[in-house]
Amino acid sequence: MSKTPFVTKEKLEEIIKDYPTPFHIYDEKGIRENAQAVKEAFSWNKGFREYFAVKATPNPFLIKILQEYGCGTDCSSMTELMLSEAMGFKGEEIMFSSNDTPPEEFAYANKIGATINLDDFTHIECLEETLGFIPETISCRYNPGGVFSISNSIMDNPGDAKYGFTKEQLFEGFKILKAKGAKRFGIHSFLASNTVTNDYYPTLAKQLFELVVELKNETGCDIKFINLSGGVGIPYRPDQEGNDIRVIGEGVRKVYEEVLVPEGLGDIAIYTEMGRFMMGPYGGLVTTAIHEKHTYKEYIGVDACAVNLMRPAMYGAYHHITVMGKENAPLEMTYDVTGSLCENNDKFAIDRELPKIDMGDILFIHDAGAHGFAMGYNYNGKLKSAEILLKEDGSYELIRRAETPKDYFATFDCFDIFNKIPFDKA
Ligand SMILES: *Cc1c(COP(=O)(O)O)cnc(C)c1O
Fold first, then answer.
1. pTM of the complete model
2. Distance from the CA of 273 to the center of ligand 1, in angstroms?
3. What is the pLDDT of residue 2?
4. Which of 30, 264, 307, 330 is deepest in the core (most CB within 10 A)?
């Protein structure tokens, strides 16, 4: 099986004349169709909102597309809150799901009316000290501990995760928050990442719905929303079958009607904070083969490196690679596809069967639309690449320029050395 890029070789050649590789390219059509499908899948729930996890793809031009489909933003830091505010997201359209949170970020989140989702019991006191009060709308992140499994297959290990309140802390926390003036409550939980099964949200939802019934009965708190957070995955490998968001939405609806509705809780809003599912498949990293090396293995060196896409280096993640124009060529070679960092893990693929690659070939690295550009860094003095939007009508637009040496050295601009850097000579 194979994966097909959302852009043709001819179009890429045209774009490369304007913007040299490497760059990330995003597919407006794909983003829109998927956002519409998400909206429809949960349309049975009156208060439903997807809060796009900004950290996955923090580009305002892309987030603006999601905004048209009613999405809000889920922020994890000061700058993500600032971006949301600048883009015109208002109050309850902004979720602040952060952890180990600096107090000044609580203050700013509150100032712009974002819903604060507390990661820890001790943050109740920190929040109250910072603001001088507890906001009327408040959410807490729950961690059930143990392992999270679906029909005997273990998905993840919440007991090892640094996030969230224990169950006891959650009950105690709700009581304290209520006593301190909170009126509208939410719970949040994120138990497994990149789940490629339609059962993840429904299984998580059932646990949370049952918990909410208990919480309501024991604390009397008015629970307004349940946040299923992120974790809905995408098929990075060509032999994987993707999630069907309509099946997922129906699965959540079924448990909602089984557990919440009979308890008179049929008004509770469902929230999601998907990142990967909203953007991952609709972005690709485009790079050019610039060197081949024949030593103990066959290597192809490209002009992108792990600073453009860190997932393979960081956790051995698979990203499919298409050699443009050689889609139907036999997979006659076995290559390591490498970047230029002085780190041996800077490889986009290891022992990958690919067509014979010639210098100058364009490689499309799939599924780089989420947690791709965003994880970028500047090790080895490498610069971050440009981001380009391929529009529905086939035209394209630069939506973030590539970094320049001036950007890289910008934090020295208050020192004399900055003026000695030969910007015009490189
Ligand atoms: C990372 C993150 C998300 C998004 O996760 P995906 O796996 O990209 O869907 C959502 N919520 C929180 C709190 C996160 O940390």
1. 0.97
2. 6
3. 81
4. 307
